[in-house]
Specification:
Number of domains: 1
Shape: globular
Helix content: over 70%
Oligomer: single chain
CATH class: Mainly Alpha
Distance between the termini: 24 Å
CATH architecture: Orthogonal Bundle
Structural class: mainly alpha
Order of helices and strands: HHHHHEEHHHHHHHHHHHH
CATH topology: Farnesyl Diphosphate Synthase
Number of strands: 2
Number of helices: 17
CATH superfamily: Farnesyl Diphosphate Synthase
Strand order of the largest sheet: 1-2
């Protein structure tokens, strides 16, 4: 659930990516993705268009298209029309999941504007997400059957992750359960972005598979870093209310590790965190207790474990500007938590 922070515009890809030619190609590709998104999502009845373009116009980082375009650099034909289409598909699917997530989370804000469910109600928000899936499916069909098949697998994994989160660990290890969930909910779509960027640019199978592993690991890094920031950053640093997940009864990785600690602090936490926290005082107390445990350090250890996967796979790919840009993206993410 997001808070009332200003809308985030798509990144300015005139920003230095370490190589002038790469920066120019990525900037052009991101512009093409944005144009395609708006063109396709503006098709249909007026009463649908304003709903499905709601979050597109609110901004966003467009991170998944960026990964697709960077990974297309490992093929002989980077940034082709099909690469741009696949990049737009990943953003459409991501947007669709945001509409549905906000309904399930009863979120009031998304990207600094009213969420669709807050503005038009749950039914409209769900249907808007469904229309986004329809637009994405149409684009898939314009590429090839492998694209349709792979995205069908991606959909299935996304839904599995949401369902797994909903039903809970069912007596299993809660940390293992959580890592599986974020792999399915976050990692899989970034993995697909990387996979399609490479494959549709003509990369060989080994390169494509390596890119897919890189994308999944980057997704894990991003999600765990967000988990850490939610607990250990101030509102000024993160733009979010600290402990948002605790208020919603969602126990993320550093919290789960803190709850495992065999200490008086861990014991007190286990007594306190039995569900959503309803008061600011409870949240502040829980945050103080978590900070006294090794939860943060253990979560950072996992961040570096997934970062090592990114580095290992990139070591096996050509040393080119896109390779270095992907390393930089991953490192910058880790630096957000020190």
């Amino acid at each position: 659930m997001t808070t009332g922070t200003p809308p985030t515009p798509p990144p300015d890809f005139s920003t230095d990516l370490g190589d002038a030619d790469l920066t120019a190609r990525v900037a052009q590709g991101m512009g093409e993705v944005e144009d395609l998104l708006l063109a396709r999502l503006s098709q249909g009845e007026d009463f649908i268009v304003d709903k499905v373009t709601h979050l597109v116009q609110a901004g966003g980082k467009r991170f998944r298209p960026l990964v697709a375009l960077l990974c297309s650099e490992f093929g002989p034909h980077p940034g082709t029309e099909d690469v741009v289409k696949a990049a737009a598909i990943t953003e459409m699917v991501h947007l669709a999941t945001l509409y549905h997530d906000d309904v399930m989370d009863e979120a009031a804000k998304r990207r600094g504007v009213d969420s669709a469910n807050q503005r038009w109600g749950n039914t409209v928000a769900i249907l808007a997400g469904d229309i986004l899936f329809a637009h994405a499916s149409r684009l898939m069909g314009e590429i090839d059957t492998d694209t349709v098949r792979h995205f069908a697998d991606t959909f299935a994994e996304l839904v599995t992750g949401q369902m797994r989160e909903t039903v809970g660990p069912r007596g299993g290890d809660r940390v293992e359960h959580y890592l599986t969930v974020i792999g399915e909910k976050t990692g899989v779509l970034i993995a697909s972005s990387a996979y399609f960027g490479a494959r549709l640019a003509g990369a060989d199978e080994e390169t494509t598979q390596r890119c897919e592993k890189i994308g999944r690991a980057i997704g894990m890094v991003f999600q765990i870093v967000d988990d850490i920031i939610d607990i250990f950053s101030t509102s000024r640093e993160s733009g979010k209310v600290p402990g948002t997940d605790l208020r919603e009864g969602v126990f993320t990785l550093p919290v789960l590790y803190a709850l495992e600690e065999d200490s008086p602090v861990g014991e007190e936490l286990r007594g306190l965190l039995t569900g959503p926290l309803t008061s600011d005082e409870e949240v502040e107390h829980a945050l103080r207790l978590i900070a006294e445990t090794d939860g943060r350090q253990r979560a950072i250890g996992d961040v570096h474990r997934y970062l090592a996967v990114v580095e290992r796979e990139l070591d096996q790919l050509p040393d080119c500007p896109a390779n270095r840009a992907l390393r930089q993206l991953s490192q910058l993410t880790v630096q957000r938590v020190g």
